[in-house]
């Protein structure tokens, strides 16, 4: 690249983030800037277990701060730099990074002259402080090409991949496999991905005690563990930049990720309850009638959702008073029932909407190369509107102000930001900060961030949350609840949800869920086994889909043990009493179980806020010494206690369950105890999903409530003996941001030898422990 082009790229990288109004680390000199025959390598520690490596041909690019996503300042306290035989060695209490010496290259042979790479080579090794090898970078690459009118490069790096290394994260890929090893992961947000929407969070965790944060928002291809190598390649860039985060446990890795990219806020307590939605409730009478239907039947409910086309036009940012004549009164009635509300807001503006011309004049819409707004989606014959350019801080501030004044002022509590991929694909187009290809995956971070920042400013004591469809590095800090997009209503789609969700949470994004029952119109192949539920009385789907009640029950059972519980779909009805008379009592029991577990689940949310670690966890996180769990993607842990084994096959009434080694397990339904390290066949009649509890677990159970707005005393504290146990029980008001300054905690401790449970502080409910303890399995 010519010098002028390098300077332009440097300005883009250095000023691009601050120009967006995003938090960014202060520009500082790295700990060391090395030169390997023209390859410049910057080593920049952020914590004892976090180090950034940047490689470029240009000194300024190597020294430039990270791109959007990371927000922590560099911190080299406790690190040392020494030299040994031409190698540069950087040490901390957690890591040792060695940049290898590169002797002056010999004269090239004839073959070398043809095949030799043009880049001066760089190799480096990262070990623990004790000398255990974590990873070795074997080379980097810059291949010139032209993208969206820019003369730029494909940039990448390769790492050794031992045969027993496994890989997790990288956002959402719905191809039904947990372990990423040996596959090509196309890391980009893509609504129309064949198996279901893909989402790029370029953070990959391994079972070897480290993770890599790849610092580039362009489309990135990753080949983890393919042919004994892991290869990263971004399609736009002028440097290689990545972070390595190590940890003796996976939780230490996630604590490092939170330190680097931002903590995960604790959602309002209502966000852990039932969120009831439909595409769409057509009037306020229909929406209020659904909420009243839950109350009349005695079923708990926390949130009602008003989905799209409540407006007069796409981009009007208004409410159609023909069908919603009194939205403020509607929300008042919901609150009187103990129910809160979420309303969907889209980032698109039709030409006929009142703001389109103003946004065009301001330059606040995604543009084509000629400066014209990009209007619609010709790939799906979708003409409805141009995309607001949320990379522009002025556009973000305007968007929030209109939503606040026009919509939230009517009493709605939280926002659903749909199409945050965005659905109008930016490739080939131009954001205010530059090429849509260069910033291909950035949109959800800035779009969600604008709403979070506006809410924090204008509703400072109100705990915010945002339902969103895509994420990027650091998106968790904006209070997002993410979901798997508009998936099909089939058994195959359900099977794919389980590993997809586990990789999403493995990407440092703790709050994930799916549209229970699938979003697409209920349609599936004929059942291949006897149907387990009579569909009589079903109004949610046509009677030609006779196994749909069975599918919905299995999907609901699974979702009770995901971070969020949300019913949604493009169906005539979606409420739990609309899947037939046989399904309703089963669904009601599982809904009550979710609310009984609310003290446990809410405490898990607090732990995630404190630690950064997800609480829906692939098994590799908790059982690193059991090699059998490395590729298991159809079971997982929900907090420290529950082993969840969803049923995802039609007609299935039993399934194999692997019980990880090193601990004993209790069948939640029968209390039978099993040794770990074995696979057992577990009965799974339609009313029951295989569920196990780890020996040495404490599970607080609450009394039944109609919503989380109601005070919930404890009904019991269940103890599963077999090992000492600790559990931090937490509670607060569930609505304000006071949790950031504390809250009510009780550190419960189980002494297995004396068979006693104790706490040095009062329970958050004010109850005494005596009389609540239930020792299971005896």
From TrEMBL:
Glycosyl hydrolase family 31 C-terminal domain: residues covered: 612-699
Top-rank taxon: Bacteria
Molecular function GO terms recorded: hydrolase activity
Gene3D superfamilies: Glycosidases (3.20.20.80), glycosyl hydrolase (family 31) (2.60.40.1760), Golgi alpha-mannosidase II (2.60.40.1180)
Keywords assigned: Glycosidase, Hydrolase
Hydrolase is among the record's keywords: yes
Domain (Glycoside hydrolase family 31 N-terminal): residue spans on this chain: 41-220
Pfam families: DUF5110, Gal_mutarotas_2, Glyco_hydro_31_2nd, Glyco_hydro_31_3rd
Residues annotated as domain DUF5110: 717-757
Glycoside hydrolase family 31 TIM barrel domain ranges (all copies): 264-604
Protein family (similarity comment): Belongs to the glycosyl hydrolase 31 family.
PANTHER family, per database record: HYDROLASE, PUTATIVE (AFU_ORTHOLOGUE AFUA_1G03140)-RELATED (PTHR43863), MALTASE-GLUCOAMYLASE (PTHR43863:SF2)
Protein name: Glycoside hydrolase family 31 protein
Species: Sphingobium soli
């Amino acid at each position: 690249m010519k010098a002028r082009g390098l300077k332009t790229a440097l300005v883009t990288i250095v000023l691009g983030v601050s120009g967006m109004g995003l938090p960014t680390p202060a520009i500082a000199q790295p700990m060391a800037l090395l030169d390997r025959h023209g390859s410049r390598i910057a080593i920049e520690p952020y914590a004892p277990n976090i180090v950034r490596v940047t490689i470029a041909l240009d000194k300024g690019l190597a020294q430039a701060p990270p791109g959007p996503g990371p927000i922590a300042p560099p911190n080299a306290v406790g690190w040392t730099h020494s030299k040994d035989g031409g190698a540069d060695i950087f040490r901390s209490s957690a890591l040792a990074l060695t940049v290898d010496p590169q002797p002056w290259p010999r004269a090239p042979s004839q073959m070398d002259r043809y095949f030799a790479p043009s880049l001066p080579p760089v190799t480096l090794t990262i070990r623990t402080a004790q000398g255990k090898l974590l990873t070795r970078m074997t080379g980097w690459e810059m291949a010139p090409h032209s993208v969206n009118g820019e003369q730029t490069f494909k940039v990448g790096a390769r790492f050794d991949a031992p045969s027993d290394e496994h890989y997790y994260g990288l956002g959402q890929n719905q191809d039904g496999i947990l372990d990423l090893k040996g596959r090509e992961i196309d890391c980009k947000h893509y609504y129309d991905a064949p198996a279901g929407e893909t989402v790029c969070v370029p953070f990959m965790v391994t079972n070897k005690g480290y993770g890599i944060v790849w610092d580039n928002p362009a489309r990135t291809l990753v080949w983890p563990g393919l042919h004994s190598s892991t290869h990263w390649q971004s399609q736009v860039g002028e440097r290689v930049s990545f972070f390595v985060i190590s940890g003796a446990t996976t939780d230490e890795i996630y604590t490092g990720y939170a330190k680097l990219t931002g903590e995960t806020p604790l959602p309002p307590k209502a966000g852990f309850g039932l969120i009831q939605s439909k595409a769409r409730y057509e009037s306020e009478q229909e929406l209020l009638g659904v909420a009243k239907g839950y109350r009349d039947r005695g079923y708990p409910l926390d949130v009602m959702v008003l989905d799209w086309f409540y407006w007069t036009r796409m981009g009007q940012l208004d409410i159609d008073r023909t069908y919603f004549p009194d939205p403020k009164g509607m929300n008042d009635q919901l609150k009187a029932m103990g129910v809160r509300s979420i309303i969907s807001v889209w980032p698109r503006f039709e030409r006929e909407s009142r703001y389109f011309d103003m946004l065009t004049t301001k330059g606040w819409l995604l543009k084509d190369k000629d400066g014209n707004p990009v209007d619609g989606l010709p790939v799906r014959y979708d003409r409805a509107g141009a995309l607001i350019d949320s990379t522009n801080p002025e556009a973000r501030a305007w968007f929030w102000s209109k939503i606040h004044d026009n919509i939230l002022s009517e009493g709605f509590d939280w926002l659903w930001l749909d199409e945050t991929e965005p659905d109008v694909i930016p490739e080939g187009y131009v954001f205010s900060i530059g090429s849509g290809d260069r910033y291909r995956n950035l949109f959800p971070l800035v779009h969600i961030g604008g709403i979070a920042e506006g809410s924090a400013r204008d509703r400072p004591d109100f705990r915010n949350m945002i339902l969103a469809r895509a994420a990027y590095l650091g998106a968790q800090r904006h209070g997002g609840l993410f979901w798997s997009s508009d998936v099909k209503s089939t058994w195959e789609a359900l099977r794919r949800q389980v590993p997809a969700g586990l990789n999403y949470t493995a990407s440092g994004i703790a709050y994930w869920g799916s549209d229970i029952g699938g979003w697409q119109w209920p349609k599936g192949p004929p059942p291949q086994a006897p149907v387990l539920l009579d569909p009589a009385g079903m109004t949610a789907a046509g009677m030609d889909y006779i196994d749909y009640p069975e599918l919905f029950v299995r999907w609901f059972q699974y979702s009770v043990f995901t971070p969020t519980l949300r019913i949604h779909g493009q169906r005539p009805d979606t409420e739990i009493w609309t899947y037939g008379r046989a399904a309703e009592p089963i669904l009601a029991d599982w809904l009550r179980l979710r609310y009984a577990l609310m003290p446990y689940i809410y405490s898990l949310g607090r732990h995630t806020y404190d630690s950064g670690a997800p609480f829906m966890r692939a098994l590799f996180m908790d059982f690193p010494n059991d090699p059998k769990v490395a590729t298991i993607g159809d079971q997982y842990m929900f907090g420290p206690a529950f082993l969840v084994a969803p049923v995802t096959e039609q007609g299935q009434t039993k399934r194999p369950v692997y019980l990880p080694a090193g601990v004993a397990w209790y069948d939640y339904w029968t209390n039978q105890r099993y040794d770990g390290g074995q696979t057992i066949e577990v009965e799974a009649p339609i009313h029951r999903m295989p569920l196990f509890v780890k020996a040495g677990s404490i599970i607080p159970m609450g009394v039944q409530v109609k919503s989380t707005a109601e005070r919930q005393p404890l009904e019991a504290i269940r103890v599963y003996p077999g090992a000492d146990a600790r559990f931090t029980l937490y509670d607060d008001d569930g609505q304000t941001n006071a949790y950031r300054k504390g809250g009510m905690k009780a550190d419960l401790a189980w002494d297995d030898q004396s068979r006693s449970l104790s706490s040095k502080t009062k329970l958050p409910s004010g109850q005494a422990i005596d009389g609540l303890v239930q020792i299971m399995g005896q």
